[in-house]
Amino acid sequence: MDVIKLKTPVLDRLTDEEFFEFCQDHRDLRIERDSAHQITIMPPASSETGATNSELSRQLANWNVEHRLGLTFDSSAGCTLSTGAMLSPDASWIARARWDALSAADRRGFARICPDFVVELLSPSDRLTDTMRKLEQWLEAGARLGWLLVPASESAYIFEPGQPVRPVVGFDQLLSAEPVLPGFALELRRLRQQ
Asked: What are the C-alpha distances in Å from 111 to residues 107, 188, 189?
């Protein structure tokens, strides 16, 4: 299944609340909306990508349980950005004080907040340039650190505000999230596809 892009005047006019309802009505689909209100429907993740994402989320969640500095989110959580986009990273983290500042109603929808840290995994159905642009959108909206992980080539790209994208080659190393996530380093070797 290929990615499907929807762009019509009717969908352009959906409020954030109506878009949330649209997503709830189609909860079996992976749906995002960019700042121009173009809706993208993505195929389900492959089993291999799902396993890699699970390992990524496990490492991030384990760090968070130990340090208790915020909340972690998996790939099913959507965030509404200041740009009007609603995106769902494969894994993310939001500092506790920022999360606590949200209203209870906002937390129940696609929270109006940009995570401090986001991770995107390049799956077989993704294009590298499109996913890099998504990371740039995260930074434009306020993310302090973003990673694009490419398990098939054992490479990663580090995105930081005001810095050029930094490539990392090889999964025989740790990928540090300092200083945004103090003490967190991803064991890349555990993301190797078997």
From this structure: 5, 29, 33
